[in-house]
Amino acid sequence: MTAQADSPAGAPGAAEEAEEGRVYTVGGQDWDEVVAAADDAGDRPGAERLIVNMGPQHPSTHGVLRLILTLDGETVTELRPVVGYLHTGIEKNMEFRNWMQGVTFCTRMDYLAPLFNETAYCLAVERMLGIEAAIPERASIIRVMMMELNRISSHLVAIGTFGLELGATTVFLYGLREREKVLDLFELITGLRMNHAYIRPGGVSQDLPSGALERLREFLGVMPGQLGEIRALLDANPVYLARTKNIAHLDLAGCMALGVTGPILRATGLPWDLRKSQPYCGYESYEFDVPVRDTCDVYGRYIVRMDEMDQSLRIIEQCVDRLAGGRPADDPVMIRDAKIGWPAQLALGPDGLGNSPDHIKHIMGQSMEALIHHFKLVTEGFRVPAGQVYAAVESPRGELGCHLVSDGGTRPYRAHFRDPSFANLQSVSVMCEGGMIADVISAVASIDPLMGGVDR
Amino acid sequence: MTAGTPADGPDQVPPPDPAALAGRERLAEQVARTGMFGVSDTPDTSGYGGLKVRRPPPLSSQPPYGSYFDDVADALGASLEQSGLSFGDAVERVVTQYGDLTFHVRREHLPAVAGRLRDDPALAFELCTGVSGVHYLADEGRELHAVYHLLSITHNRRLRLEVSAPDADPHIPSVVDVYPTCDWHERETWDFFGIIFDGHPALTRIEMPDDWKGHPQRKDYPLGGIPVEYRGATVPPPDERRSYE
Amino acid sequence: MGMEEKLPSGFLLTTVEKVAGYARKSSVWPATFGLACCAIELMATGGPRHDLARFGMERASNTPRQADLMIVAGRVSQKMAPVLRQIYDQMAEPKWVISMGVCASSGGMFNNYAIVQGVDHIVPVDIYLPGCPPRPEMLLDAILKLHDKIQNMKLGVHRERQVEELEQARLRRLPLLPSLSGPVPGADR
């Protein structure tokens, strides 16, 4: 490992000449010399400072986050996060695609919670189109159910990586095992395990296939036991408690100042959840609680996430009951307005999945209007009236907001996503400075940042 | 939005039709795009070139705004009076659209307005969820907009502040002293739009590499990308393709 | 390099190739370069259902110094590209690269200023794996194809001969389409 006293800019490509200290290069078998040289440095202030780069590639599985730590022994005196290693230009790319295609781009921002990105975007588009009331109820119920499933799968990765980074690899395997169940459900319903492009402006792209409700009920029966297994491993584990209790403290004032939302905010004692305070997609009609702790530490955030998964299972059960009971079979999942609703009536054909022969017969043989609508939607896309709007959803990491500006055309004029990880990650310095270097790992894990969302 | 003059007698001019007024307003706006789909650089006759699409006229709402918006506007006005500013000085335009309230704030008064919004108990917008930029290339003198979204947890309300600056002088005062969360958001807006936030502790690039030239999300910056080759054809990068607008 | 480089061509060299190939392919240690969404599917491949441990690959070495295989999983941005190259350089021979996902193979759906249009601009790639993201089974298929490649890798004089032949074949090859990329240098035209 190379130890250098470096200029504090933290920029990549550090300066060759150190302005504030001497450069020691350690080659191996020479630790005594390094220590002697460091001792010789005398009592110059900061002479025993060590700057360590936890570079963009590191074992912590939260992605390409670079942390530059200034250490005094084991204590972190300064922490500078550097982001931008996953910047994809999604927002600018969305300006060159029409409103329906924007879903496939925005879904890849926060890639562990893709359905939340899609929902925030679709809610914003629907508000601008003025069709919020016209979204079919079945579509809203499916949206809620898919979002809560996604919340579970995202929290499972968060808890799994909590364990993995602290050395408890079994938790990681348990989390991934449960997550596979959720991904199976996603694959059954949306066709893909990740990055689904399932929730589209106007509704969802296709209805639940047959057998989905049975599979969901099976899942609901099995999951509480599996979550109990994870809890049994961690909740009262003395090693885990020692690593997470009273670590990475961030109280309510700090959260407000730093714009932090999500489980971190709920672990400070404030029960702020957009699903309860500014409900969307019909959340006001579901019974669920908002888990809250007031310990402001890593352990509190872990418990909040575990409880949120239990509440998500409650909501999914209510959704499944509503979808199963007493609804007419031909309830649509896409808005009936033919100028907006995406014409995807898919069916299983002889050569795979494609547009259903009935739909093709209809547009080619029966209705010229339907053909024109289909054509215009697929080539040009629908137009959204001019203006701007901000729609927010409660994603597993916090408030995910979508700010859209339209100029009246078929493409967004500007699409900006307020990603929760981007705001939450600013708090990592506040949480870690003054603590030990090993607590940096716990702190970053408790923020659960997702670099795709941070960098977009 | 418009009020016709009341007719006093048979020889008075009848009140102008609101639809006609709206039409006149629309036709007075600058043309944003001409021609529906179709290309102009090749002899491709597959489009319709006669269409002129005009920019939508700038919205301005008059009080009463509806729902909680009046409370916010009145409380802000009262709060600003105490520090010697009037509501009309600080806020040049109020827009209510799609259920959102937007104050277009003059940039020199932005820190004061933000401070009052955060500290006044009747307003209590504790959380700023971020800053983003928008580049209106056609808006002479007001090209760069910075949009702030505020959230009041106490009153469960949302508010949008919009500040504009010309390309020639892209300076906007920073609100990091009021809302420290805007630190990274302002860095991002500088990175992507070139808006310089005066008073920011360390305005450096955050998403692009440190030595990148240009501000990518401006409208005059190309999307980049390469032409993709297939057998016998190429597909140009997304910003150079024919567009069916 | 090693003793195998000095063996003359013949039965002994082919036996050493088989043994070395078998040993190398059975314990490939991936240096997971998990960047974006594909990294999640990579983690899922290491999970209990699609078990990467049955190939001896569950020990993902986080230090590139001890890694054999770099799986570039996800989109590589312009800022990340020098880091990618540095990690690749820090790996010791023999090393292989799988570019997982369309973003790593070709830039994917992000044909713009921020993404490197294919990591083969930066590092030499052995297996390209399309998908957005590719399923764990697809990644396992790519890994098995790589195992075949590793098993059949030639050593010493055989390798030199193979490289010569490949180079001659490439130089003789005519372009697919005459006009797109201009005349190929060295082609017989």
List keywords for this structure.
heterotrimer, A: 456 residues, alpha+beta, three-stranded antiparallel β-sheet, 18 helices, B: 245 residues, two-stranded antiparallel ribbon, 5 helices, 11 strands, disordered N terminus
Question: Could you write a compact summary of the structure shown?
Answer:
The complex is a heterotrimer of chains A (456), B (245) and C (189). Chain B is α+β, with helices and mostly antiparallel strands.
Structural features, described:
The complex is a heterotrimer of chains A (456), B (245) and C (189). Chain A is of the alpha+beta class and 456 residues long. Helices cover 46% and strands 13% of the residues of chain A. In chain A, helix 6 runs antiparallel to helix 7. Chain B is built from 5 helices and 11 strands; from the N terminus they run αββααββαββββαβββ. The radius of gyration of chain B is 23 Å and the shape is flat. The two termini of chain B are 30 Å apart. The model of chain B is unreliable at 1-9 (pLDDT under 50). Chain C has helices at 11-26, 37-45, 81-90, 102-106, 136-151, 156-172; strands at residues 30-34, 69-73, 96-100, 127-129. The relative contact order of chain C is 0.16. The chains are: A alpha+beta (456), B alpha+beta (245), C alpha/beta (189). Chains in contact: A-B, A-C, B-C. At the A-B interface, helix 2, helix 9, strand 10, strand 11 and strand 12 of A face strand 5, strand 6 and helix 5 of B.
Summarize the helices and strands and which ones pair or pack:
The complex is a heterotrimer of chains A (456), B (245) and C (189).
Chain A: E1 3-4, E2 23-24, H1 31-40, E3 50-54, E4 66-72, E5 75-82, H2 90-94, H3 102-106, H4 114-129, H5 137-166, H6 169-190, E6 199-200, E7 203-204, H7 212-234, H8 238-244, H9 252-258, H10 263-266, H11 274-277, H12 298-324, E8 346-349, E9 352-355, H13 357-366, H14 368-379, E10 387-395, E11 398-406, E12 414-418, H15 420-424, H16 427-432, H17 437-447, H18 451-455
Antiparallel strand pairs in A: 1-2, 3-4, 4-5, 6-7, 8-9, 10-11, 11-12
Chain B: H1 18-28, E1 31-34, E2 52-54, H2 69-82, H3 87-90, E3 91-97, E4 100-105, H4 110-119, E5 127-135, E6 144-152, E7 157-165, E8 171-173, H5 182-193, E9 196-198, E10 228-230, E11 233-235
Chain C: H1 11-26, E1 30-34, H2 37-45, E2 69-73, H3 81-90, E3 96-100, H4 102-106, E4 127-129, H5 136-151, H6 156-172
Parallel strand pairs in C: 1-2, 2-3, 3-4
